[in-house]
Amino acid sequence: MASGGLQLLGFVLAFLGWIGIIISTAMPQWKMASYAGDNIVTAQALYEGLWMSCAMQSTGQIQCKVYDSLLKLEGSLQATRALMVAAILLGLVGVFVAVTGMKCMKCMEDDQVKKMRMAVFGGVIFIISGMAALVATSWYGNRVARAFYDPFTPVNTRFEFGSALFIGWAAASLAILGGAFLCCSCPRRETSYPPTRGYPKNAPSTGKDYV
């Protein structure tokens, strides 16, 4: 029962992490302008994400513009996109594999060994998915920090960490932690020895031979 509860906890954490990775990928707040500049009067905040850039006006309206061409984007941004999309796809595969190996599911009940391996395999996939998202968000955040502290970067073009980065970091951590719980939820196989065969005791000799 304890291993089943740990398995369920791991799946819930990994699933929440996968949902967080999807939300982080779709959000445009990967970085936000720390200073809008004197030329933009009506804008309160500027955001940039993986797919679009947005400006929130003083009236509360948000205007977003999708990036025009994929070929015009920086190679680092394209790599971040690829890692996040890969993390989402791996997480989707991990969901199906882990559900198949859950003890509360009736699938593959006739073979508990394969069912256990499916749960562990799903946990490994979740860990890889979380690592991909963690690398993508950390790489993007490192680029933002380096550009912010670069003295040659103009003041009106400096950006800070956006909320999508923090969500991505938390989601990646949940996916890795949940995957680790899934890998550790299966009980260790105990070595069983065959029962010792008892040998019949020899009857005491009476000294008489029967023909």
Automatic annotation (TrEMBL):
**Where does this polypeptide localize?**
Cell junction, Tight junction; Cell membrane
Write out the function statement from the record.
Claudins function as major constituents of the tight junction complexes that regulate the permeability of epithelia.
Similarity comment? Belongs to the claudin family.
Q: Cite the entry's keywords alphabetically.
A: Cell junction, Cell membrane, Membrane, Tight junction, Transmembrane, Transmembrane helix
Among PANTHER family, the record links this protein to: CLAUDIN
Q: How does it sit in the membrane?
A: Multi-pass membrane protein
Q: Which Pfam families match?
A: PMP22_Claudin
Q: Which InterPro entries match?
A: Claudin, Claudin1, Claudin_CS, PMP22/EMP/MP20/Claudin
Gene Ontology CC: one annotated term: plasma membrane
Q: Which residues cross the membrane?
A: 7-27, 79-99, 119-141, 161-184
Give the protein's recorded name.
Claudin
Keyword Protein transport among record annotations: no
Q: Which GO terms describe its molecular function?
A: structural molecule activity
Natural source organism: Eurystomus gularis
Tell whether Iron is among the UniProt keywords. Answer: no
